[in-house]
Amino acid sequence: MIDKIKNYVKDNTGLLLRLDDIAENMKWEFMDEVEVLFDKYNIKPILGVIPKNKDKELLSYPKKNTNFWNRVREWKEKGWEIAMHGTNHVYDKFCSKVDYLGHGGNTEFRSHPFNEQLEKIKIGLNKFKEEKIIIRTFFAPNHTFDKNTLLALNECGIDKVLDGYGLMPYKENEVNFIPQLFYKTFKLPFGIQSFQIHLNYFNKKEFYDFKNFIEKNYKKFITFDQALSKVNNNFPYKVIRMTTEKILKIKRVISN
Ligand SMILES: [Zn+2]
Known about the structure:
This protein has helices spanning about 1-10, 30-40, 55-60, 70-75, 115-130, 145-155, 205-215, 225-230, 235-255, and strands at about 15-20, 45-50, 80-85, 95, 105, 135-140, 160, 170, 175, 190-195. By secondary structure, the protein is of the alpha/beta class. Zinc ion binds near residues 20, 21 and 89.
């Protein structure tokens, strides 16, 4: 019995790394360094690539001389998951906590009419198509989207979103959600967890701590496909999901 439980926990525990704001302009010195580390430990992160970055803040980071899209193709060939992280990353609306995950805040998608969202998503996906990169995964800038975003994604054949609550991937509105609970490296003893990492925001010390975490925990990382194979809509996980949602929402209210 104990062995059975141990095996169950082992089979259903794993870490994923979600790297946000991957674009031509970013802190390349950190990206180059973590790439060496990921290769060393065979970690395959999920990269949120912005296909048509027009975000003024992000555009202030340095650009590399080499072709960005060649680099993206190289990452994909290594088995890294290339996800679409919005289309231009420009926040042109603000939403109170009425978005799909109840985060609230600036948004590129939420509250835009369905047709506008569909058009925007198509523009982003076309850029990937031009670059011969097939996309199956999306996550919205600032976590803010709505049901229309999911409908538009669905119409474009995208049915995976790396965001949401809970300890297990789940299916809702025809979309597979892979939960993203934590903003920093943190380990729970059970469940599939994804960390959101912004290399651009790291200072040297935070970057050093991040690398240390990878060195110590590399064995716990799983691939995106392994996470997807764990999609589980069983009732106990639904309860856990609702609980994590409540806790995180309360935590956000307290910390705001
Ligand atoms: Zn972003």
